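Let us work through a complete example step by step.
Step 1: write down the sequence.
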Amino acid sequence: MDSRKRILVVEDDSNLRESYMANLKMENYLVDGAGSLQEAIEALDKRNYHTAIVDIKLKKKDSKNEGVDVVRYIRQLDEGTESIVLSSMKDQVLERDLLKEHEVFDYIVKADLDNKGGISHLLKRVKSAIDTCRVDTRLSWETLVGQIGWPIDGDRFTAECLTRLEFKGGFQTLSSALVAACKPVMPLVRENLVDRALAFDEHEGLFRGRFWSKSQGMAIELFFWGKNVSSGTGQSKSVLMGRSILHHPKERAGLSVVIAELSGRSRSDFSNAKQRQ
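Step 2: predict the structure and record it as tokens.
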């Protein structure tokens, strides 16, 4: 799984957008582009971004600053994305509102870029924004673990695992280990119309759940159980990650996690940002 930082460029001028994207890619960033408010929202729903560069006026023939709606949506998602706003003119009132109300990282007038070093200045501001960015997995973790609290189906199974492994931390230990294992695929969006994010499968003796991974931009299936990771579960799937957690060599036991790509699912099969739990 690629750990490079991801940038979203929201600019309706295709020449400028391609120019920004090309320069960012040269800095080894993963870059996506959007030319409208709708395209930006679709991109933000599918992926998590460390920084978004947003042109404040996406419709040149319209006085409405649609870029503000993009920034507002980023704040609504609350996933840690930093916003850098680009404007064709200086507007002190708009700049103040964006910095204060929407907490944008920076407001840059396009004409000023040349005086400040051109694209190199923008790249420096992007790097500073990324250094500040802290991708928030809190909501994702509530999505994942909030539905595993006692009592649930399979609680005896999990309790026996924790007891056998002699963990003093109980459920908290399990939670900490799972969040560490699942961090590469967070933020997560849970499957639509399911009662539990993770449900216990009595036939296979494990927990399983389906999510949209915004860091990977794909549907995934998550399994964890009290067996070695070499178990056959997930082996016929496209496995993204498999590891043992909370391993206890003396007891020859542990809890294992497998994350596999889930084919045949689209973003619409998973909850919208407003519906996340």
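Step 3: interpret the result. Residues 116 and 122 are 9 Å apart (CA to CA).
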